[in-house]
Write a structure and sequence with these properties.
seven-stranded mixed beta sheet; six-stranded antiparallel beta sheet; 3 helices; 4% helix; mainly beta; Tachylectin-2, Chain A; Jelly Rolls; 578 residues; globular
């Protein structure tokens, strides 16, 4: 446990450590208000919007601050994305529920905010929550309001006109709040109600993130009419020493195939996923397990850790995620927020902050021990010019450029193969922290089998580059695959957070092949290793490798020769986000 985490535990603050210059700078991670940096008049901001580092095919509003997704849903042929948004500046504050709609999850049209602070039960903020579509096709929003006493209370909102497919207007009835923390619950740590599910006994259920001292928990509430809610005696689940649980998500995944399940499905042919966002670490983790509706308990499997070191959707810059069931395509879709890694002043200067990661399909790995993720198929419609590479051998120290595409805005799929694992380095059993291993070894330190992978957003002379790569080790009983996305060489600019992100890939290497897909979009690189077993999102801010001056390479720094068996790299069109 580092010093800053200890401070957070002792004093209840939320920190992230940024390494700026020669030492660590502690910055409050979220919920810090900068009144001096916000527009005085909503809509009258004249800040010039900087195009450098803006994404081309990721979702982001035209200007200002955005953080976590709220209650994404599908309703009458239209996808709805609600998200936390500051209409008055590129920093956190003045939070409303912004609202955009789409037919394909890629191209978006913005509408007026669905929810804004206006009543005693949310006058100080409309924070995160979820959407639930009731059986009679009536959508309901559950959200956390910050009331006139600065307590976190749970409210609901309903569409003003169900015949409007865009659901432009939302009404917040005066019988809010429908869940009050009372005296039993910490009213400053009680937020983010989940999508509700219907039990066989006719009760609706939702979970709300909280903590008791440093025990993180998901309180379970139930209702017969969606209006009168009662707290179940015990939380659905809790874990000591994990701190505040934000943005909890709870849903079923089938044992078989990639198809998704409605949140209310009950039976014995699936597992449940419980995901929480840890305020203390700014990472998310999830477990797979069994839900017992008769006793209102969730019991995780023993196949992964239940805590900080547990499984993650994404081992990089990915937080406050929210999933929804898409009944049209029978899939579960996951949204997540990728915050900026530059400074507050940088965000104010460029006039915007925050993007959403590409929506992902999520389903259960056939091994039953983890989830798999993959970008939604609609993204492929943005692919245009393609460059391919087949059976390219890479010897130790070799770098080969992939020419002919717009390397700053690209979709790359590659299969690497190797003839032998005999040269794999020995794995130290103490290496339980993948990020620390990646920081220690990096992409330039020679290995046995690896490091090999991609050099993304590279400048012409490699003064800047972000490597995404694998390194394979030999453990006592098997081989261990490390996947890294290393931002330390991503930019010549000082004052940026340039971390190494990494995760281990639980994969069978009997085929002697590893796959990698990277979505490269100016200031973000989303990578999917081993067919979506391990995912890493990095935010980077190159100064030279921008627009037409960005380059893409494959490389190998291991003694074992690597073959690029198959590579397809597409230039990507920009999505339409209005």
């Amino acid at each position: 446990m580092n010093f800053f985490t200890l401070l957070a535990i002792l004093f209840g603050f939320s920190f992230c450590s940024l390494f700026i210059g020669n030492g660590p700078v502690v910055v409050q991670a979220l919920h810090k208000i900068y009144p001096e940096l916000q527009s005085l008049e909503n809509g009258n901001d004249t800040t010039e919007i900087k195009q450098l580092h803006r994404t081309g095919f990721h979702f982001q509003p035209h200007r200002h601050w955005m953080n976590g997704p709220n209650g994404p849903m599908y309703f009458k042929g239209i996808y709805h994305l609600f998200y936390q948004y500051n209409p008055e500046g590129a920093v956190w504050g003045n939070i409303v529920w912004a609202h955009s709609i789409s037919k394909d999850l890629i191209n978006w049209k913005s509408l007026k905010p669905a929810l804004s602070p206006s009543k005693p039960f949310d006058i100080n903020g409309c924070w995160s929550g979820s959407a639930t579509v009731l059986p009679d096709l009536k959508p309901v929003i559950l959200y956390t309001g910050i009331d006139s006493q600065n307590r976190q209370v749970q409210n609901y909102a309903i569409p003003a006109n169900l015949s409007d497919p865009h659901l432009t207007e939302w009404v917040k009835p005066d019988n809010n709040p429908i869940v009050d923390p009372g005296t039993e619950v910490n009213s400053s740590a009680f937020r983010d109600p989940s999508t509700a599910w219907l039990s066989l006994n006719g009760h609706w259920n939702t979970i709300i993130g909280s903590r008791s001292e440093q025990t993180g928990m998901a309180y379970l509430y139930r209702s017969r009419d969606f209006l009168n809610w009662t707290k179940v005696e015990q939380p659905l689940h809790s874990v000591p020493n994990t701190g505040m649980w934000e943005c909890p998500d709870f849903y079923p995944v089938s044992h078989f195939g990639r198809f998704g399940l409605d949140t209310s499905v009950m039976g014995n042919w699936f597992k449940h996923v419980l995901k929480v966002s840890l305020e203390m670490t700014r990472y998310e983790y999830y477990t797979l397990g069994k839900y017992y509706p008769m006793t209102d308990k969730y019991v995780p499997d023993n196949t992964s850790a239940d805590g900080w070191s547990g499984l993650r959707y994404d081992y990089g810059n990915f937080y406050a995620s929210k999933s929804f069931y898409d009944p049209m395509k029978k899939r579960r879709v996951l949204w997540g927020w990728a915050n900026e890694s530059d400074s507050v002043q940088d965000d104010v200067s460029k006039g915007w902050a925050g993007i959403q990661a590409i929506p992902r399909m999520v389903w259960l790995d056939p091994n039953g021990k983890q989830l798999l993720q993959w970008p939604v198929m609609e993204l492929n419609r943005l692919r245009r010019k393609i460059v391919m590479m087949l059976n390219q051998k890479l010897v130790k120290g070799q770098i080969v450029e992939i020419k002919g595409i717009t390397a700053a805005q690209a979709d790359v799929e590659v299969i690497f193969s190797f003839s032998s694992l005999d040269n794999a380095e020995a794995f130290d059993p103490s290496w339980v922290d993948a990020q620390a291993v990646c920081s220690q070894l990096g992409s330039t330190a020679q290995g046995g089998v690896g490091p090999f992978g991609l050099l993304t957003l590279a400048s012409e002379n490699l003064e800047e580059f972000t490597p995404v790569f694998f390194r394979i080790f030999k453990a006592e009983a098997n081989h261990v695959v490390l996947m890294c996305s290393d931002a330390r060489s991503s930019s010549l600019k000082d004052g940026l957070y340039k971390p190494t992100f990494a995760g281990f890939v639980d994969i069978d290497l009997s085929s002697k092949k590893l796959s990698l897909r990277s979505l490269i979009d100016h200031s973000v690189i989303e990578s999917f290793g081993g067919g979506g077993k391990t995912c890493i999102t990095s935010r980077v801010y190159p100064t030279k490798a921008v627009f037409g001056d960005a380059h893409l390479h494959v490389f190998n720094n291991g003694t074992e020769s690597i073959t690029v068996e198959y590579l397809s790299a597409w230039s990507m069109r920009s999505a339409w986000v209005n």
